[in-house]
Amino acid sequence: CRNGDQCNRLHNRPTMSQTLLLSHMYPNTPEALALANDEPWDDDMYDRAQQHLEAFYVEVFLELANYGEIEDLVVVDNLCDHMIGNVYVKYYHEEDAERALMKLTGRFYSGKLIQAEYTTVSDFREARCRAFHETRCNRGAYCNFMHIKHIPRAIKRRVVREMYDDHPEYLGQTRGSRKEKDKDRKKDRSRSRRRDKEKKEKKEKSDKREDAGGAPPARQTSEERRAMIAQWNQDREGAAGGVVA
Question: With 80 as the cut, is the pLDDT of residue 188 above it?
């Protein structure tokens, strides 16, 4: 929240999560700040900013991987006070995030105390600013949605490979967790297919009934209803008279 502790709204802080927020951990260089603020830049400026970001990413990813298997790590490009320099790390298991939180408490990076806490952000694709990643964000670097800094896929693949080289015990955990996730996805898909099939069958039955019965009868006027009731009474009296005779 941009208002921090001064906000009047009630913010539910999670007591457990797979994702940690490391507030203001990334030390933005002057080049990175200029790029984020859409100031004039050249290739040399971009290269210096990108090299600094990639070196930070590799160092921090491999350090955080000592506490557990990392699913994803992102650094944001936002410049608003509550988001500048924020780093988010998502572990595959909540107990790994808990271990990382305990180990990071009291540690320093680049001369600053690391401020680690659980966060409700679990899907970085949903939390990111789509306008920024697809076209251009009109709010610029002061948007409240995540503007994620670009990390080349080659760098991401390299750090993941190094993580598994340093911690081969993570491989078995990943297979198990991925199998469980695949099972959950299959169950969700099968439920969705069943629901769609049931809806389709109900609609077909409803259409058949309408075709068989034709259009619903038009509502009668009060005069027609009175005439119909009078006819019923006559028929009933006639039938009663026939029985008495």
Answer: no
